[in-house]
Amino acid sequence: MTDTAQIPDSVYEQGEYNFAYLDEQTKRMIRRAILKGIAIPGYQVPFASREMPMPYGWGTGGVQVTAAILGRDDCLKMIDQGSDDTTNAVSLRGFFEKTAEVRTTCETAEATIIQTRHRIPEKPLTGDQILVFQVPIPEPLRFLEPRETETRKMHALEDYGLMHVKLYEDIAKNGHIATTYAYPVKVNDRYVMDPSPTPKFDNPKIDRMAALQLYGAGREKRIYAIPPYTKVKSLDFEDYPFEIQKFDKPCGLCGAENVYLDEVILDDRGGRMFVCSDSDYCEERRADGHLGPMAADPAAARISSTGIDGAKTGETVR
Amino acid sequence: MNLFHGEDPLLQVHNVTRYYGDRVGCSEVSFDLWPGEVLAIVGESGSGKTTLLNCLSTRLAPTAGAIEYRMRDGAMRNLYQLSEAERRLLMRTDWGFVHQNAADGLRMNVSAGANVGERLMAVGARHYGNIRSTADDWLGRVEIDSDRIDDDPRSFSGGMRQRLQIARNLVTQPRLVFMDEPTGGLDVSVQARLLDLLRRLVADLGLSVVIVTHDLAVARLLSHRIMVMRHGNVIETGLTDQVLDDPREPYTQLLVSSILQV
């Protein structure tokens, strides 16, 4: 976050990576895009996205944003679907450990930069933290209007009736607003924005968040941002107000309520449990002595010791 | 023009010319359109009818000439000097455009109700119940059953699609509607029903309409006044009955006499 080191030429000669993989010119270019994004909250700033040593869909946008803002004294946390120990999170954490040699952590409170895919940590973030989102499709109007020239014009003219057509369709077809993730929001009363595929459960956290939020879409070559304490409103109808998902059970392991839960299949005879999607939050609560109704279950004990792999339902990338 | 005497024109067209490179689309067209008046533009394919209609509806900038429209506040404004935002607002509130092919004017992948409601939501309606009841009301007015409100237009017949397109355009109570061959591609009995419906709606709502058609029967049924075009020029203009019963120009005489008599 603070000054990025200028790498002496000797390092290049040794065949090592520049600090955080990207060269300094590229990082400056990305920082300029980020600054513009912060100046115009919710506006999608085009940037010259680079080829990264990982496939599109793995978070190349988020990685480039993180690389551009990372400093030597930063502490990095990587989240994939709320968890620190799934493939994507482990790989990207390893990437920055190797190329930037920064400190990494699983603890939300300790991190200065948190890169995430799908979830916002349950623990409230502070003003000294930056949340970086990996975005697959930044354009909220894309599935309603395929032409980029037209969607840009619609943003410019604040012509957002179409977004409500989608919500109308949801209610007409399902009886309620059935959009559960990538739920469109209006930022600072101006731009309609796609908060990446986070579940709508996390939308209220985006509103007036203390931490800076940066969104990077590598394939689509867009960066956008929400500065701290910015008003973010989820779109809705007067008679169908915005609601977040509710869970009728607490977390099976730590007993937490009002958190986002993942369903975990335990066996092939219908056994299942619901656990916190935010693995760090769950572990911290268990360390504090909170126990959920299934914490003593042998299957659950196995999960909590080895970490949750696969076996998740719910959000997939569109 | 006794019918509309005493009112100010809604649309004033001055010498509108459109070239496609060296070729003429339409040339030096001037006319006034009064509130509540239906003007038919007739002529054979390639005569410049659609070019003129697109120029009038700001879909295609004319090479030369000016088009002025009386806004709801009574001021005459040159359409091509409006800002993009003003023009868009005009197009989805005060105007309608009925395409020949209904698929061009509808959103084929959202329900009929959403198609009708889109304009309302675009101008700020945010109450689902009200939007839906307005949509339902309009579907009724264009003779589409209420139970089809949640169906996609894809499942509609050609005639129903065309009626849905009309409802979608009229929901914001526009004052001026452009129609490009609204009955093209429909079979004769469906055409007759659609024309009947259009005639009633136009009369009830006091709409001004500019309708492009090559079908003189459509012009006869719907329009008060007629403009005959050929090679991009207006060659004859007058009251519909007068032009069709007593055509002056040889070309108009040819057009009128070429109607099939069954």
TrEMBL record, chain A:
<dbReference type="InterPro" id="IPR010306">
    <property type="entry name" value="PhnJ"/>
</dbReference>
<dbReference type="GO" id="GO:0098848">
    <property type="term" value="F:alpha-D-ribose 1-methylphosphonate 5-phosphate C-P-lyase activity"/>
</dbReference>
<comment type="similarity">
    <text>Belongs to the PhnJ family.</text>
</comment>
<keyword id="KW-0411">Iron-sulfur</keyword>
<keyword id="KW-0456">Lyase</keyword>
<keyword id="KW-0408">Iron</keyword>
<keyword id="KW-0479">Metal-binding</keyword>
<dbReference type="Pfam" id="PF06007">
    <property type="entry name" value="PhnJ"/>
</dbReference>
<protein>
    <recommendedName>
        <fullName>Alpha-D-ribose 1-methylphosphonate 5-phosphate C-P lyase</fullName>
        <ecNumber>4.7.1.1</ecNumber>
    </recommendedName>
</protein>
<comment type="function">
    <text>Catalyzes the breakage of the C-P bond in alpha-D-ribose 1-methylphosphonate 5-phosphate (PRPn) forming alpha-D-ribose.</text>
</comment>
<keyword id="KW-0949">S-adenosyl-L-methionine</keyword>
<dbReference type="GO" id="GO:0019700">
    <property type="term" value="P:organic phosphonate catabolic process"/>
</dbReference>
<dbReference type="GO" id="GO:0046872">
    <property type="term" value="F:metal ion binding"/>
</dbReference>
<keyword id="KW-0004">4Fe-4S</keyword>
<dbReference type="GO" id="GO:0051539">
    <property type="term" value="F:4 iron, 4 sulfur cluster binding"/>
</dbReference>
From TrEMBL, chain B:
<dbReference type="InterPro" id="IPR027417">
    <property type="entry name" value="P-loop_NTPase"/>
</dbReference>
<keyword id="KW-0067">ATP-binding</keyword>
<dbReference type="GO" id="GO:0019700">
    <property type="term" value="P:organic phosphonate catabolic process"/>
</dbReference>
<dbReference type="InterPro" id="IPR003439">
    <property type="entry name" value="ABC_transporter-like_ATP-bd"/>
</dbReference>
<keyword id="KW-0547">Nucleotide-binding</keyword>
<dbReference type="InterPro" id="IPR003593">
    <property type="entry name" value="AAA+_ATPase"/>
</dbReference>
<dbReference type="Pfam" id="PF00005">
    <property type="entry name" value="ABC_tran"/>
</dbReference>
<dbReference type="GO" id="GO:0005524">
    <property type="term" value="F:ATP binding"/>
</dbReference>
<dbReference type="InterPro" id="IPR012700">
    <property type="entry name" value="PhnK"/>
</dbReference>
<feature type="domain" description="ABC transporter">
    <location>
        <begin position="11"/>
        <end position="256"/>
    </location>
</feature>
<dbReference type="GO" id="GO:0016887">
    <property type="term" value="F:ATP hydrolysis activity"/>
</dbReference>
<dbReference type="InterPro" id="IPR017871">
    <property type="entry name" value="ABC_transporter-like_CS"/>
</dbReference>
<comment type="similarity">
    <text>Belongs to the ABC transporter superfamily.</text>
</comment>
<protein>
    <submittedName>
        <fullName>Putative phosphonate transport system ATP-binding protein</fullName>
    </submittedName>
</protein>
